Amino acid sequence: MEDRTHYEQASPVVQKRIQDSFDLQGLMSHLGARITHVGPGRVHIVLPARPEVTQQHGYVHAGATSAVADSAGGYAALTLFDEDSEVLTVEYKINLLAPAAGDHLEAVGTVLKPGRTLTVCQLEVYGVRVDGTRKLVANGQQTLIRISRPAAE
Length: 153
What we know:
The chain has 153 residues and is of the alpha+beta class. It has helices spanning 12-23, 26-31, 62-78; strands spanning 34-39, 42-48, 85-96, 104-113, 118-128, 134-148. Strand 4 (104-113) and strand 5 form a beta hairpin.
């Protein structure tokens, strides 16, 4: 059976909440990353390959690769929680499988096991070429903790 989570869209309310939170992230803005898909338990983030995010060999730096993977997983978890909840990463492990090359990277965070307190996500990062060719360049797993949204000051 085909996994429909690849295509399913989150509700407009959830999409807006995720995008509004993402827009507050200075690092994602600095990197030039953007959200391209928000579904229940699944978020995609694209990072254009630019000289500012590369390492000395011209590949996208592992730090930038890991950062978009971490955010994709965090927002995937957040899609499943109510508006009074937030998430924080407790830990994640990333395996760098190949040089992060391509026109852009696409990080995909997918919830494997949601929980009341802890949620576990799968992280995948693909190098995508202009012709659409995709190569898995990193994968990992992440644990997040669900917290109450801080009170507004």
